[in-house]
Design goal:
GO molecular function: GTP binding; GTPase activity; metal ion binding; translation elongation factor activity
Structural class: alpha+beta
EC number: 3.6.5.3
Shape: flat
Distance between the termini: 73 Å
Number of domains: 4
CATH superfamily of the largest domain: P-loop containing nucleotide triphosphate hydrolases
CATH topology of the largest domain: Rossmann fold
Organism: Trichuris suis
Largest sheet: 8 strands, antiparallel
Domain Tr-type G: 55-250
Family: Belongs to the TRAFAC class translation factor GTPase superfamily. Classic translation factor GTPase family. EF-Tu/EF-1A subfamily.
Number of helices: 14
Strand content: 25-35%
Helix content: 25-40%
CATH architecture of the largest domain: 3-Layer(aba) Sandwich
């Protein structure tokens, strides 16, 4: 390998690497490119900054319909606060960084970043608005304490505006700010009309319709430093509203830690890293853990804790964390698994009772009734799995009804009483609910596909119409013969 002189100190500084005294003392020993790269990488890691917990922490997210300006607003916030040294400016393309996001101009994965005001440190989640990526939106929203609903004044309330509010409420978000965006493209009368429409929608879903701060402005003007009266000044007004209106949630710091895994990475030379929001308790380097969910029996140890690429001595409930874990291969971890203390008593579940509300069509739900043994997909914490619904004592549940149901998952997952979940069918959110009782394993009459399909056939004959999908009805008729209503 050819020898190479170490780059100059100014060159290294230009690459934003901090140079330590040991590095300077031993730079003459760097005689090859490989040695140089290893040394630079080692010392760059060694001097990573430490997170200082000197302000209250609040998790906030941008939600709303696709193309209404959530990511533009997020970028504008970082630009304005970066000038006060309260953030690192993130350009639009740095937030929507995946190739597909850039090519399609939409957010697909929830993006995480941080900034602070004079009063508060914020963890910000920019949630995808496109209907095709609603599962990523659910995961992103589950990690926030409050949300900024972004609505374009040029379009007003749209399908994902409604759905995002439903999902935010289901997850337990009670605090909302509203940013009416793109007012530079709408007349005053239109802006006022959209504000009225949004306040009515907030009231419809149980939010504070009259007291919720609504700020009208242009995120693009703020980002481009044009028309400050509707750009920069309105974004600053939004940040002031966040400081004053949003109340800090109570953190469960004294309980055993619970860490749902959102993403898993393998970092060469360091090991496996998992990221997510610590829901309760505290986590620090050296803590042992076990994994729950998807049949996992893996145990390991936390060897490093970071938040937004800064080391942290102790992660606390509410923190967005990256955990370096020892004793666990990347292939053994997946999104939806949770980390808990060893011998915590938690067990994965495949069956549970739940108090559930089925949405009406005007709330974004479906118009057809939901039948016993209906197939859906459940979303909770960071997991989503196909499920089979049972409705004890009833044949059907109508949209708009509350019902006690039993949910059977296709694989065991982490569930506990009072845990919230969402049910979706195809591209619709059809229900939201809260777990009330754990029931253990799925019974044979549900687990056995043949027995289940026979029971569904009996339901079709009893009801006189097909409450399931027409495609499924055709399969059942082909298998068992006879005719049934199409429903």
């Amino acid at each position: 390998m050819a020898c190479r002189i170490i780059p100059s100190i100014p060159a290294l500084r230009a690459n934003r690497l901090k140079i330590t005294t040991p590095f300077l003392q031993h730079r003459h020993l760097l005689v090859s490119l490989r040695t140089e790269l290893v040394a630079v990488r080692h010392f760059a890691v060694a001097v990573k900054s430490t997170y200082k917990r000197d302000k209250p922490h609040f998790n906030i997210g941008t939600i709303g319909h696709v193309d209404h300006g959530k990511t533009t607003l997020t970028s504008a916030i970082t630009k304005i606060l970066a000038e006060k040294k309260h953030a690192i400016f993130k350009r639009y393309e740095e937030i929507d960084s995946a190739p597909e996001e850039q090519s399609r101009g939409i957010t697909i994965n929830a993006a995480h970043l941080e900034y602070e005001t004079d009063k508060c440190h914020y963890g910000h989640v920019d949630c995808p608005g496109h209907a095709d990526y609603i599962k990523n939106m659910i995961t992103g929203t589950s990690q926030v304490d409050g949300a900024i609903l972004v609505v374009a004044a040029t379009e007003g309330v749209m399908p994902q505006t409604r759905e995002h509010l439903v999902l935010a409420k289901q997850i337990g978000v009670t605090q909302i700010l509203v940013f009416l965006n793109k007012i530079d493209e709408a007349d005053k009368e239109m802006v006022e009309l959209v504000e009225t429409e949004v306040r009515e929608l907030l009231g419809e879903f149980g939010f504070d319709a009259d007291g919720t701060p609504v700020i009208a402005g242009s995120a693009l003007c703020a980002l481009q430093d044009t028309k400050p009266e509707i750009g920069r000044e309105r974004v600053e007004e939004l940040l002031n509203a966040a400081d004053e209106y949003l109340k800090l949630p109570t953190r469960e710091l004294d309980k055993p830690f619970l860490f749902p895994v959102e993403h898993v990475y393998s970092i060469k030379g360091r090991g496996t890293v998992v990221t997510g929001k610590l829901l309760r308790g505290k986590l620090k380097r050296g803590d042992a853990f076990e994994m729950i969910g998807f049949g996992s029996k893996v145990k390991g140890t936390v060897t490093g804790v970071e938040t937004y690429h800064k080391t942290v001595d102790v992660g606390e409930a509410g923190d967005q964390l990256g955990l370096l874990i020892k004793g666990v291969d990347k292939e053994a971890v997946r999104r939806g698994i949770v980390l808990v203390p060893p011998s915590s008593g938690f067990k994965e579940q495949s069956r549970f009772e739940a108090r559930t509300y089925f949405l009406k069509p005007e709330e974004g739900g479906q118009s057809k009734p939901i039948a016993n043994l209906f197939n859906d997909v459940a979303y909770s914490l960071t997991w989503n799995r196909p499920v089979i619904l049972q409705i004890p004592g009833k044949d059907l549940v109508m949209p708009g009804e509350d019902a006690e149901i039993i949910i059977n998952t296709t694989v065991p997952v982490f569930v506990e009483p009072q845990q919230r979940f969402t049910l979706r069918s195809s591209t619709q959110t059809i229900a939201t609910g809260i777990v009330t009782k754990l029931l253990g394993d799925v019974p044979p009459e549900i687990a056995d596909k043949k027995l289940k399909k026979k029971a569904m056939r009996e339901n079709i004959e009893k009801l006189g119409f097909n409450p399931y999908s027409e495609q499924l009805g055709r399969r059942l008729r082909a298998r068992y013969g006879g005719a049934s209503g199409s429903g």
